[in-house]
Amino acid sequence: MLLLLGSVFGWLWALGTYLVRQLPEATIPSARWLHAALAIPSGYILLFLSALARVFSTSMPSFKPAWALAIVPLHLLSMGCIFYSLYYVARALRSVELQRPAQFAEFVGEFFLLWFYPVGIWFIQPRINRLAGHAF
């Protein structure tokens, strides 16, 4: 799980950082928002996995209901950050291709392709390679 999410988040980080450099300033927000939006779910996943390991590492149950209440808002925040990351990269990709700020209707396809990562990468990555000038 960590390897898969690490590769997805790393790819989105690299893609967003590269694409925002190809746009005129003030077209879309800086990549700092993207970096924060990817750091939050990464930290949440590490925190959740370490807490889960702690719960299952002892013979006595150490589960506390207060932690369960904290999981819901943290999980919703993490999901929102992931969706923002997908939105940001999809918008940046389409804006670079159009050379103007893209509207949501123009990049909704890219958004869903990024969301369905294993299949979407087959369609998105060749476009990225063309933008970068590579013919792989």
Number of helices: 5
Based on helices, strands and strand pairing, what is the structural class?
A: mainly alpha
Mean of pLDDT: 87
What profile does the largest beta sheet have?
none
Question: How many domains, as an integer?
Answer: 1
Radius of gyration: 18 Å
Query: Strand tally, please?
Result: 0
Low-confidence parts lasting 5 or more residues at pLDDT below 50? none
Shape: elongated
Name the beta content range. Answer: under 5%
N→C terminal distance: 28 Å
Helix-strand string: HHHHH
What share of the residues lie within helices? over 70%
Organism: Hymenobacter metallilatus
Protein name: DUF4234 domain-containing protein
Keywords: Membrane, Transmembrane, Transmembrane helix
What can you see in these coordinates?
The chain is mostly helical. It has one domain (29-126). Helix content is 80%, strand content 0%. The chain contains five helices and no strands. It has helices at 2-21, 31-57, 65-98, 104-115, 117-132. Helix 3 (65-98) crosses helix 4 (104-115). The radius of gyration is 18 Å and the shape is elongated. The two termini are 28 Å apart. The mean pLDDT is 87.
